[in-house]
Amino acid sequence: MTQHPQPADPVSGTDVDDVTRAVLTASRLLVAVSARSLSSVEDRVTLPQFRMLVVLTTRGATKLVGLAELLRVNPSTAMRMVDRLIAAGLADRQTNPTNRRETALTVTDNGRRLVEQVTARRRAEITSIVERMDPMQRTALVDALTAFSDAGGEPPVQDRAIHPLGWSD
Prior knowledge:
With 169 residues, the chain is mainly α. The chain has helices spanning 16-38, 47-59, 64-71, 75-87, 109-131, 135-152; strands spanning 91-96, 99-107.
């Protein structure tokens, strides 16, 4: 099947392939920034475990099945991850007082601090990159990224909020 070039936007003159290429390049940078922010804790948690901690930090007490759905993993995989986080002192399991068969998973103070540390490192590096941009480019970037996020259905991050970057709520 032959691919035809995307038509240029009549207003900006930019075609969809150019925008896609720019977004892919920017996403590669953001993945690198995220990886560097995790490097200080990679001996304690894996990326999937960190994702779990972020979800627990942002959502609060969560049932295992709900957590597995949010992370798009099997409940048995989520259970193994939870067990490792509990053993590391980063998460906890609490019995529901109204239904003793149910347990809720929570992040511990140590787990919350770990998420805050990684998020602060990521924020600092992104801030450093943004500060090197021209102020008018920053304004254009905010507009473009807001439109991109809106088109993708991603809710905005609140100031200083910890948010599961790239993971739907």
